[in-house]
Amino acid sequence: MQHGMNLAGLMICVLTAQGRLHPSQPATPLVSQGETGYPQEIESIVNARCLSCHAGATGGGGLVLNTWEHLMAGSSYGEAVIPFDADNSLLLEMATKLAGGPHPRELGGEMLTDRELAILRRWIADGARSSTGEVPFAEASQRLLVGSQDEALVSVIDMESNVVIHTIDLQELGFSATAKPHHIATEPDGSFFYVSLIADGKVLKFNSAYELVGQADFETPGMMALHPTEDLLYVGRSMAAVNPPMRIGEIRRSDMEIDEIDVFFPRPHAIAVEPHGAYAYTASLAENQVVTVNTDTREAQFTAIDGPTHTFVQFAISPDGNTMVAATQLTGKILVFDIGSSPIATLVDSIAVNAAPWHPAFSPDGRYVYVGNKNANTVTAVDMTTRSVAAVIEGRGLAQPHGLAVSPDGRYLYVSNNNLRGEYTPRYDLGDNELSGTVTVINTSTYTIEKVIEVERYASGVATLITN
Fold first, then answer.
1. Are the beta carbons of 170 and 197 closer than 8 angstroms?
2. C-alpha span between 238 and 268 (Å, rounded)
3. Residues 6+ apart with CB under 8 A from 198
4. How far apart are CA 410 and CA 293, in angstroms?
């Protein structure tokens, strides 16, 4: 149920100021076949149904439909079509599900016929190809992956256009409707990515073409971290696990064979590996314990943290490998650890942020740490040179921020939002989308929200997938 753009007038809506059809207003001249990039059947529907509103420099609702390229680009709000996913494409949702009547009937126009809808549905399901057979965004090299726990779905966003370009339906791959995709980890070269399924007890391996190529069994997997030089992936336990084994997973990525490492404390959740790969770190949700694991010998050394129970959600390690930060759910802090002087995590500072900080991330230059505050609907930027709060960001789309990723150039933050309390109202009422998740795109120079991308329910883990 993608619904990420303002499409008032998606098909045909020549309106007067009172919102009624004006039969005497001339239609926009049709675009001749061969110039649009649409297959012929689709071009015929667009010419007959859409161009009276969605033509010219801007088009109705900011959506221009003169060409196939314009449709694929969507509007400034988001995508209209998701290749291979007709059910979640806004173009069809608006024409079949919109509250108040399918578009454009709610504006006084005529509904699309069953035949026209069937043609559009078949075309999108086949990849929304151009007249020459081109699949849109097939060459996208900077992608954001977003898990949606309540829909057993992973959405793929093109980070250049900031529109959803693909979805991975886990049910179609044989997993349950309640599989709960939670966290995502990606190979540095973008060749593969990994998705933890809390409820199905699996860690899945996909290639960059979204094909499932491997899986491992692990009870209630949660956060994941790749070893930078060895063929290993480390996995913690989900928050949903009440009393899981006191072990973390170690998966051999090439064949997805799994082993487990004892950490001797309950509910290991946060997990990270330092840039040289010699040490991995995990922490308990239930106790103020951080453990440093030698990845070669598997020996564990513990650091006890004073104070009330912090509940360590997740770690982030600076690019130079000298500093690790932890977000603490219950005490609302970023804890700063020195791991450069000694591999044993040593607490050196504590920075108060807003309520329930979740997944932190460093900027590429290591100067800033960003974290979403789930119970405050804000994002905090921390200046690590002064170890002080540089900005608190709030605004539309921030509704229980969860995962966070930084663009490779550091210009943008991508923040996934659960929206389980319905604090964000979707742009369109489609009858079943009142709790749609979001991804907010934040400019790191101005700390402003530039775009809100609507995705499926309970948006959780995010990760960038960068290919050359």
1. yes
2. 8
3. 149, 179, 180, 182, 220, 221, 222, 238, 240, 241
4. 30
Joined together, the tokens standing for residue 411 give: 């210009």
Contact 389, 351 (CB under 8 A): yes
Could you give the residue ranges of the DSSP H alpha helices within 268-392?
none
| CA–CA distance, 6 with 182 (Å, rounded to integer) | 29
8 A C-beta contact, residue 277 and residue 295: yes
Q: Hey, what are 129's tokens?
A: 């190809």
d(CA 9, CA 62): 10
CA separation for the pair 52, 181 (Å, rounded): 42
Residue 373's closest CA among 413, 404, 337?
Answer: 404
User: In tens digits, what is the pLDDT along the chain, a chain of 468 residues?
Assistant: 444 444 334 333 322 222 222 222 333 333 444 579 999 999 999 888 887 778 877 777 788 889 999 999 988 778 999 999 999 999 999 889 988 888 766 666 678 899 999 999 999 999 999 999 999 999 999 999 999 999 999 999 999 999 999 999 999 999 999 999 999 999 999 999 999 999 999 999 999 999 999 999 999 999 999 999 999 999 999 999 889 999 999 999 999 999 999 999 999 999 999 999 999 999 999 999 999 999 999 999 999 999 999 999 999 999 999 999 999 999 999 999 999 999 999 999 999 999 999 999 999 999 999 999 999 999 999 999 999 999 999 999 999 999 999 999 999 999 999 999 999 999 989 999 999 999 999 999 999 999 999 999 999 999 999 997
- One DSSP character per residue, 360-408 reads EEE-TTSSEEEEEETTTTEEEEEETTTTEEEEEE--TT-SSEEEEEE-T
- Type of residue found at 3: H
Name the DSSP letter for residue 172: G
Q: What are phi and psi of 95, to 5 degrees?
A: -85, -10
Say what the pTM is: 0.91
Cα 164 to Cα 422: distance, rounded to the nearest angstrom? 21
